[in-house]
Amino acid sequence: MRLYQGAAIQEYDEDLFFRHNVKRGLRNSDGSGVVAGLTRIADVHGYVREGGRVIPDEGRLSLRGYDIEDIITTTREEDRFGYEEVAYLLLTGALPNEIELKDFLDRIGANRHISEGYLTQFPTSTLSTSIMNVLARAVLLLYAFDADPDDTSPEHEMDIAVSLLARLPRIAAIAHASASAHQEGRRAVIPSSDASLSTAETILQVLREDGCFTHEEAMLLDVMLMLHAEHGGGNNSTFACRVLSSSATDAYSTYAAAIGSLKGPRHGGANAKVVDMHRDIRDHVTNWEDEDELAAYLEKILRREAFDGSGLIYGMGHAVYTLSDPRAQLCKRYAKHLAETKGLGAEFGLIERIERLAPVVMRDVRNMNKPICANIDLYTGFIYFMLGIPEALFTPLFAVARMAGWSAHRMEELFGAHRIIRPAYNPVLEERTYIPLTERPLVFPTDDNVERAEDSGTGECEQASNTEGSNRERAQANNTDTIGEHAAANDVHDNSADDRTDHDHLF
Prior knowledge:
mainly alpha; CATH 1.10.230.10; 3 domains; three-stranded antiparallel beta sheet; two-stranded antiparallel sheet; 50% helix
């Protein structure tokens, strides 16, 4: 039936985008994003432009002008949790002094509690195979518990942001604990909220039923939250947040949409894929320290002869970063000691060798001379594994952390841009004469005659079946838009985690 084979699922030949000067995926031909707005929130730097050329550069992530490495290094040296300070910085544009930070922490602590009325509906009514789906519905449910949910004043927007920063960590952890208990036929044990705990500690408190976790574990999770808090306005979920905000809809609908975007495997789901790849490599490489054996297996992965057949080394490559991803470097720096403490030094060393050998193998197999660096996903899954965080929560924790960035971008769009985002699509269709229902044929042509890709600019029709095959071959050859933001092995976050593009480049 044409219901399942009609025009809605026809692919477009890439030549059509070129002929009509369409920036597919809002991306320029060199892989960089189309400039869609202005922001004072963050800067993701990975290259410089000189005379029309893209020059690779060391990666740098700045939040409100402050280097993320300086923020994390300083909070670690002072032995204090930093995610809440990062959230304050993103929301207000300024570093808090001691009084302001204490007030902010008190506000978050006061909002950790989830009302009994809410808990009677959540999470029992929101059991799902996806915690991200639960999170989106949980945020929408909070709309009903807001006395004036459609109020978009700055004060109310800030109150909602603080409320979600406080509650989402517990909601995500409770959703997983409840789902696990339901599957095992037991009642979930959920500890009472503790206003004195940091966001990282709050998450571990719910996940560890015995309440036992070390300070080092909580500090490492805090680093991960800071690294995922914000990554520029162009990544898919943040752009979705801005698109909805530009329509002046309510905050709950906006944040639920951002969560839905992050749920996509091309954006936020890369870290779990990396974990699967690491597991596969450990199973098939007998000597993890033998670089020749490891390189040979990486070559098999690239040639689609091993792992998932995608030809991607997940966790390598990024849409913006070229020489280095600062988030990956910080992950590696702070994860090494915990890995050694937990007896996982060999696994950590294997990941380091993958990071070092993958660019060489990719150069030889794909004849690539462009720089390739590890993105944050190469280490994220391993770190979460060390912390005992289940894979089902990898992307939800990404969402929990990114709530700070989404809130900042929503308010910047809502109060700074004052115009609905409304891009255009170029029509490529032929004018046709309407046929009365009784005159339409009851016997349909074959799929070969029905499935056509039309180009109104030339009037030419190409068989969709032929186009489909060529598109897949071309996409596989280019290794673009495969698993993305965070995901791609060679990720285009989106992933982003954000705009990772496993094997996606600017050149």
